Amino acid sequence: MSQTEFSGDIxxxxxxxxxxRAQTFPRLDEEMVxxxxxxxxxxxxxxGTILYSRGERQTDFFLIKSGSIEILDLGDDGVPRVLTxxxxxxxxxxxxxxxxxxxxxxxxxxxxxxxxxxxxxSFLRMMSAEPDIGEIITRALILRRVGxxxxxxxxxxxIGPSHAADTLRLQRFLTRNSYPHRLIDSDVDPHAKEMVTAxxxxxxxxxxxxxxxxxxxxxxxxxxxADVLGLTERIxxxxxxxxLVVGAGPSGLASAVYAxxxxxxxxxxxxxxxxxxxxxSSKIENYLGFPTGIxxxxxxxxxxxxxxxxxxxxxxxxxxxxxxxxxxxxxxxxDDGQTVSARxxxxxxxARYRKPELLNYERFEGQGIHYAAxxxxxxxxxxxxxxxxxxxxxxxxxxxxxxHSVKHLHILVRGPGLKETMSDYLVxxxxxxxxxxLHPYTEISVIDGDRYLNKVTWTNRSTGVDETRSIxxxxxxxxxxxxxxxxxxxxxxDKSGFIETGIMAGVVSSGSPFETSASGIFAVGDxxxxxxxxxxxGVGEGSVVVQAIHQYLRQIPTAPATKAG
Length: 565
What we know:
Blueprint: E1 5-6, H1 21-24, H2 30-37, E2 41-45, E3 50-52, E4 61-66, E5 69-74, E6 80-86, E7 106-109, E8 113-118, H3 120-129, H4 131-151, E9 156-160, H5 165-176, E10 181-185, H6 192-198, E11 208-210, E12 217-218, H7 222-228, E13 240-246, H8 250-261, E14 266-269, H9 296-309, E15 313-315, E16 320-324, E17 330-334, E18 339-347, E19 351-352, H10 361-364, E20 369-370, H11 375-380, E21 385-389, H12 393-402, E22 408-412, H13 424-432, E23 436-439, E24 442-449, E25 453-460, E26 466-469, E27 474-476, E28 481-482, E29 521-523, H14 535-555
Parallel strand pairs: 9-10, 13-14, 13-18, 14-15, 18-29, 20-27, 21-22, 21-27, 22-23
Antiparallel strand pairs: 1-6, 2-8, 3-7, 4-8, 5-6, 5-7, 9-11, 11-12, 16-17, 17-18, 19-28, 24-25, 25-26
Helix pairs in contact: 3-4, 8-9, 8-14, 12-13
């Protein structure tokens, strides 16, 4: 069998994983094959044998000793098509090997084959015990998912008007959770109407999600979408975790990585997608180790894989709505009624941007007013005038990113400038850009439009002068409101709702600056009162807090870590 074959055209683009065959579909050497074999068992299958199917969970890892395996993509019409053929000393799988989500593809024997099957628990043990093999496998699994996303394979079709709030909501959810999809813009694509007719749905039902082999979803909630796509995981209410991390921003993911890598049974609950507010940043340039910068989504994606590789569970699309902190283990209730029990909790729910009190504001949220500036949003406003409201680093990063594709960009700040609130490297770049204008002492006073936002008036509070522009996109990045409503009196908050920790919360026994007024409940990152609102500091807090968790767990009764009493 020759090196992995591909169906369809192969790009010469170096960023395309399918052009990097040696990394995306590597062949292990004979010595590595022997080591992998020690974690599984050999068996032979006949041509056509199904090894696993799309939609299954907890698929095993297969290494090919001889013969071949065909990887199948289920098309929009429900007919399986060969996506890739893998041969001798290659292995199956992609990122869902690290979690309990539903598979995106199917696999069958392309010819009679001799295989090594490594069951899920043994696979995770192998990844930890054999770091050189683990590095090759992890890189390959990541690249395969990137290939699916780049080529729109093994995913779903999203049909709807590209500027509509619900279309953007669903597209953001899929994108931020690295779920492959294709968008068909019903406002401009001539084939959209034919597809809507063929699907026997009303155009008023748009947007819709078309998952292969399943019923069409008409404008689902993100929770409903996650359930149908198999992104959510059922949590056994009798399980007791050592550590429950609430929030999967940089600080929460750092806690998960360090806790899981040190042998603590760890679960992460996240309401939308990994990354938190930082996940919406187009490029973070002052984070240690990335001299050319990295997007918030890429950083979060890597951290998520890292945590799962060490055994942490990640449950997305479920918000924490309340907590019972009256006894151990602590119990957190999710918005779908599920409960999660843990001996220690790390609150890393971060903060959200504040909303100004403007007439029509809610009407244009999501369809003209944005809280993220990624490639998806940049595509919506090419060669247009746009507004960024805010003077922090998030606003500066958004302005620089968007300035490459927009006609002109206006930064509106209530104060005299940017120097007090923004990193110097961003301030200097903004000052040098001929495509960016800074408007100090200025606020938006009127927004208007018909179907979508198309007119904005801003007012200079110093001079009282109004200016009205034909603008369809505002990027709102002002202030910070902590996500702490669900704590409901369990721990001490400051007057703004941020969590008090350490001496501020009256903690003297443990000495941890991250422990809250409730013993065994810790807070890290932007949600913590007095924290530095930067990615690096959040990651630092999330990693350092694990030491205090170890100390706390040693002091409490050693209840079973798997079953509640």
